[in-house]
Amino acid sequence: NEGGKVWGGYGVTVDEASENLLAEVFEFDTYAMQQQHLKENGNLVRAIRKNVGSLRSLHYHLGVKLTTLDSRLFESWHVWKKTNVDNGGSNYMVGFVPLSEYSGRKFEEKEDYKSGKSTGIYIIEAIAPNVCRVTRIQHVDLNITGLPTKALKILAKGQLAEANMLQEKFRRNAKKVDEEVQQMLVERMKQGVKL
After folding, report:
1. Is the pTM of this model over 0.90?
2. Cα–Cα dist 2/6, whole Å
3. DSSP characters for the chain?
4. Out of 65-79, 120-134, 160-174, which region has the weakest mean confidence (pLDDT)?
5. CB-based burial of residue 153 (10 Å sphere; 0-12 exposed, 13-18 middle, 19+ buried)?
């Protein structure tokens, strides 16, 4: 914590295909996410602009309630990229930066609360066809001087909650998952691929 700026991150193994985890961390326009926003932030703004510039990107315009009297507006530009790996699988990267980094059209609507900024990356690595590792690193600037320890704990709790939610949502039979990972390791050993 330095002047309202916070770094956070996690790494977690999830019992799901890397393609499905890409959808989980990139697709914001769902009923469940809309309901969660209403529950946590009331009627604060939430707008999503998809397929920006015919690219794998979106713009997100989001009001977040920090306290009963204090809110922040986050405007971000999200993009994703697929990378192929030696074992024939696919890994994905999802990056997000403040919308001010985007040179094109922005949201015209301006809210009457302070702006916050967030920059981060998700790295989704395929371990087996239905198992992947998700790493998230994020920097948040809440535009607050002297961020209290309580706020830091709330932010850290949010990071851990997402990691736990991903594991719980996609949890499968441990023996089955172990079999899949072992089979993938055997295949890689047969092919002589570096582990």
Report:
1. no
2. 7
3. -BTTEEEEEEEEEESS-HHHHHHHHH---SHHHHHHHHHHHTT--EEEEESGGGSSEEEEEEEEESSSS-EEEEEEEEEEEEEE-TTS-EEEEEEEEEGGG--S-------SS-EEEEEEEEEEEEEETTEEEEEEEEEEE---SS--HHHHHHHHHHHHHHHHHHHHHT---HHHHHHHHHHHHHHHHHHT---
4. 160-174
5. exposed
